[in-house]
Amino acid sequence: MSRLDRLRIVVTRPASKSDALCDRIEALGASVIRAPSIEILDVEGDHAQESLLRALPSSDWVVFTSVNGVEAGLRAMERIGVHLSHFDGVRIAAVGPATAAALRDRGLAVAVVPERHVGSSVADVVGPITGRRFLLVRGDLASPALPSRLRAAGGLVDEAVVYRTVASGAGAEVLRSGFDIVTFTSPSTVRSFMTMLGDAAADSLANAAVVTIGPVTSQAAREAGLAVAAEADPHTIDGLIAALASISPGSG
To answer: Do 176 and 229 reside in the same domain of the chain?
Structure first.
């Protein structure tokens, strides 16, 4: 019998991104409660963003910090006529293996992926920074840690915001029956989930274990007053599944 057999596990990822995680959890015998706390929306018609994307060939590095950034970024480029050939001569950094895989699936070569899969770690693997131009393709709620590190080291940094994260209350109803574990895959899923639960948050989470995908998300959970039972290592879906398997009911 799986350690997760018959447990009720909440997945807070956006509905469009949750299938793979839900399938993996169900394969371990758990019951999945789909409660998307956020939605991801493309940013369109932003002239500053479009200008930065058109100037992509003048960058030394283009940095993608999430799969959402890859998907929304390439859609934005397609809308304004920036083709994959514009990446010729530009090095690409990806924050983690899933982001790198999304880029390679689209025919783009990834030069570096940091061992620690958090955005600020990209600064450790791109080589000389002073005087280099970096284009960060990211969302509206992305951490300022990476651009701050790059600028402090003398880098020239532009940030193209290609998607925005909005709260979703779509999962509120399904949570009323209770749950054993809740998973968070970004700080925004934490904050929006707590807002979604509202005054019922303390009671709903009293006996539930919290599992996160990485340290930035864990920090957001702790700031929301939650105890983190397990954190994915590596900070990927595979790592999240392993973290789930490492805990038992009542770990929260």
So the answer is: yes
Q: Are 122 and 215 members of one domain?
A: no
172-208 pLDDT, tens per residue?
778 888 899 999 999 999 999 999 888 888 888 988 9
Range of the domain at 128: 42-165
Q: How many domains does the chain have?
A: 2
Assign residue 235 the CATH number of its domain. 3.40.50.10090
- Rounded to whole angstroms, the Cα distance separating 136 from 144 reads 11
Distance CA 60, CA 106 (A): 20
251 in a structural domain: no
**How far apart (Å, rounded) are the C-alpha atoms in residues 144 and 218?**
17
Structure tokens at 81: 């006529």
Segment 131-168, tens digit of pLDDT: 999 999 999 999 899 999 999 999 999 999 999 999 98
Residues contacting 179, CB < 8 A, separation 6+: 8, 9, 10, 33, 204, 208
DSSP result, 160-175:
EEEEEEEE--TTTGGG
Q: Which of 165, 197, 220 is the last residue of a domain?
A: 165
Residue 14, C-beta contacts closer than 8 angstroms, at least 6 positions apart? 36, 38, 39, 40, 168
